[in-house]
Amino acid sequence: MNAPDRELIDRFRDAVARRFGLDFDDSRRDFLGEILVKHVARAKSADPFSYIHRLVSGQAPRSETADLATDLTVGETYFFRHPDQFRAFVTAAELDRHPPPGPRRLHILSAGCASGEEAHSLAILLREHVPDGSGWNLRVVGIDLNPVSLARAARGRYTAWSLRGSDETIKQRHFHARDREYQLDDSVRAMVTFEERNLLSDAPDFWRPGAYDVIFCRNVIMYFTPEAARAVVARLTRALVPGGHLFLGPAETLRSVSNDYHLLHTHDTFYYQRRRDTTDALQFPVESRIAREDALFPVLSGADGSWVTAIGEASDRIARLRREMRPVGPAASPASGGPISGDEAPPVPEVARPLDLRTAREMVRQERYADALQVLGVPAGEDRRDPDAQLLRAVILTNCGHVAEAEQLCHDVLSGDELNAEARYLLALCREHAGEFDSATEEDGIAIYLDPRFAMPHLHLGLLRKRAGDRAGAHRAFREAAALLPREDASRVVLFGGGFSREMLLRLCEAELRAREGDS
């Protein structure tokens, strides 16, 4: 077949999302086009449309979909990747208690296990901490879409590169050198079973309630569409015992995905614990996403709305939703504070405490601004001049509508570092809020000069130029923002995106670009 056009690739991309839940952005179009050509030829389909229909309808043979999954999900991993999470697992599973607790069940799922390094790492930890004859019921199950990776996992034979995160003691105890490779000891391999499964496919016997005590699903849902991610997490939740632990990748979060978990932070890593009583969960739909989408409507519709105002109005909506729907009485969690409404004064922590920026950033990600300020505490000594802490406070205050205080913090940061692009961008928001649009435009320009790959100043500049009637300048800025957002660092989107997701920010840019194309 000839090289597929954009429309055909998009149709194939939608089919892949429906069949596997995988989300490929525009930067992967060429890759998807090559995959489509290859598999249409391999399947001997009459045309690509027939192949796509067969894929979506479930009529494609299992071998055909497995072959496609192999090409779509090639991943590289290694033993004990992200070691902080394995240390947290040992504590969460009470494996570090001496003596260990009496006989018990510990069933672990490694979802998206690839070639088995994660599942086998967990089995090694069980061998290290649970004595033989202890009576424990131990089981590790690894599942993945990719049959080639699963075959390698079952063989248990790995290169030195796969063991680069393992110390020599682990290698000596649990591996045998074989022809420049390492064969996993049979005692470890016997603890793990591997199965080919699609996380989107419902299999009641496998996903039975409470089947697992711990689930690792790391660096998986980040590749899913939002709908697929919510469906997969719901399935994992059903299979996890109440009180069981869920480990996601360091760049992944359950924000806007599930309200069924407590966030835990130990061993310098974040992970989740399923609520024991679901009545203490905040039982409302993904209100953050909906409220923020509502706040974008005036901007998308062409109304003369301020970006800072949109941020503040969204935070107010979410605050109201949380107050209306928060459980009352003993079921309410005192640590689940929501965003501060713009007409409320931000709570001032009364006690100085060591900075915990990582926890505070995670709370900002969850839009728990009051809790984030409490975690940051009262700045004292060197902390008062810490630019990261000052910027984080400024972000929180901006989201809460307390812009004057945020602007002062930006100036404090810039007095020590005039080349701080993030502080320049926040200052642009503050200047816009004060009605100083020329000054805001200038600050955005400085931020772009200092860091051309920082997407948010481009987006904000587009809104300012749109307000000023500079249609050509607005078009250039929105086009640049749309090109940068898919590659923008996730943590920077969280901190400086005003609480809006990457997808919503892209929607805004694309809508503005379409509007300007229609005007021309």
Automatic annotation (TrEMBL):
Among the record's GO biological process terms, what is one? methylation
Instruction: Please give the Pfam families that the UniProt record associates with this protein.
Output: CheR (PF01739)
SMART domains for this protein: MeTrc
Taxonomic superkingdom: Bacteria
**Residues covered by the CheR-type methyltransferase domain:** 1-277
A single Gene Ontology MF term assigned here is: S-adenosylmethionine-dependent methyltransferase activity
What PROSITE patterns has UniProt attached to this entry? CHER (PS50123)
Ordered alphabetically, the record's keywords are: Methyltransferase, S-adenosyl-L-methionine, Transferase
Q: Does the keyword GTP-binding apply?
A: no
- Write out the ranges of the annotated region (Disordered): 327-350
Q: Which InterPro entries match?
A: Bact_Chemotaxis_MeTrfase (IPR050903), CheR_C (IPR022642), CheR_MeTrfase (IPR000780), SAM-dependent_MTases_sf (IPR029063), TPR-like_helical_dom_sf (IPR011990)
Q: Fetch the PANTHER family from UniProt.
A: CHEMOTAXIS PROTEIN METHYLTRANSFERASE (PTHR24422:SF19)
This protein's name: CheR-type methyltransferase domain-containing protein
